[in-house]
Amino acid sequence: MLMLCKEQPYASMTDELVIENAGEFFRDQGKQVYLSRPEVCPQGLYELMLSCWSRESRERPSFPAIHRFLLEDAMNMV
């Protein structure tokens, strides 16, 4: 959504490398490649997105926490 469908995620990787990268998230040895922050994406929202990808469930934000963040972020934009 924030990329406005202008480019394909992981466009510089082959299909095989994208699949291998998905495995790196599971192995969690620091070799995974994250999507870069789109120019139009606020840093705080990008950090929230990264925290959602954490392997450990206790490190991921809860749905109420995500909801609060988005409400607060939206209020700060007005």
Structural Rg: 14 Å
**Tally of separate domains:** 1
Please summarize the sheet with the most strands: none
Enumerate how many helices there are, as a single number. Answer: 3
- The helical percent reads 40-55%
User: Which percent range describes the beta-strand content?
Assistant: under 5%
Secondary-structure element sequence?
HHH
What would you call the structural class? Answer: mainly alpha
Task: Please report the distance between the alpha carbons of the first and last residues.
Answer: 20 Å
> What is the global morphology?
flat
Question: Would you tell me the overall average pLDDT?
Answer: 86
Number-wise, the strands total: 0
Poorly predicted segments: none
Tell me what the structure shows:
This protein is flat. The chain has 78 residues and is mainly α. The protein has three helices and no strands. It has one domain (15-77).
Topology (SSEs and partners):
Blueprint: H1 15-27, H2 43-52, H3 63-77
InterPro entries: Kinase-like_dom_sf (IPR011009), RTK (IPR050122), Ser-Thr/Tyr_kinase_cat_dom (IPR001245)
Protein name: DDR1 protein
GO cellular component, one term: receptor complex
Note the main attributes of this structure.
78 residues; 0% strand; single chain; Ser-Thr/Tyr_kinase_cat_dom; nucleotide-binding; ATP binding; collagen binding; RTK; mainly alpha
Offer a concise description of the structure.
One of its GO terms (molecular function) is ATP binding. 49% of the residues lie in helices and 0% in strands.
